[in-house]
Amino acid sequence: MKKIFFIALLSFSIIGLTYKTATAQATPLTQQALAPAAPWSESQLIEPAALSAELKSPGTNTPMIYNIGAVEDIKGAKHIGAVSKAENLEKFKSAVAALPKNTIIIIYCGCCPFTKCPNIRPAFLELKKEGFTNIKVLNLPTNLKSDWIAKGYPLESK
């Protein structure tokens, strides 16, 4: 009886290992489906072309733009650094603390796809927690290099 139990246990372990290996090799589309849901709505995304156009002809309602990652600064962005680090999240909180809650705030990281980004969600959730009502996320589904720089959109002069 012990032999049968041991063989059954070994079989289940092998099946489990095979399943784990198969799911680890999932396609990017499958991995996206497994990624946590975005805390922002579709209407809270701003497309790179729209922001670039806005930067070229600023109006009276100019947004505050924060680079909350470890990438280059787009034109007009305030560099915070990767908010996945506690000290940069605190720096971000301080930077927005005195702003009116209805200020248009655009955040971006661009280090990697949204599904893997360690910075965009914490910054967005912090703004929500602090009561900001006009939060936008720059839609960089791949990264800053592909979705902004390669398209010739403006960067901050160095």
Q: What characteristics describe this protein?
A:
single chain; 158 residues; alpha/beta; 5-stranded parallel β-sheet
Task: Walk me through what this model shows.
It is built from six helices and five strands, in the order H-H-E-H-E-E-H-E-H-E-H. Strands 1-5-4-2-3 form a five-stranded parallel β-sheet. The termini are far apart. It has helices at 2-24, 28-34, 48-56, 86-96, 120-129, 144-147; strands at residues 45-46, 64-67, 77-79, 105-108, 135-138. Helix 4 crosses helix 5. The model is unreliable at 8-34 (pLDDT under 50). By secondary structure, it is of the alpha/beta class. Helices cover 41% and strands 11% of the residues.
Strand content: 5-15%
Binned, the helix content reads: 40-55%
Order of helices and strands: HHEHEEHEHEH
Largest sheet: 5 strands, parallel
Q: Compute the average pLDDT.
A: 82
Low-confidence stretches: 8-34
Put the structure in a nutshell:
The chain has about 160 residues and is of the alpha/beta class. It contains 6 helices and 5 strands, in the order H-H-E-H-E-E-H-E-H-E-H.
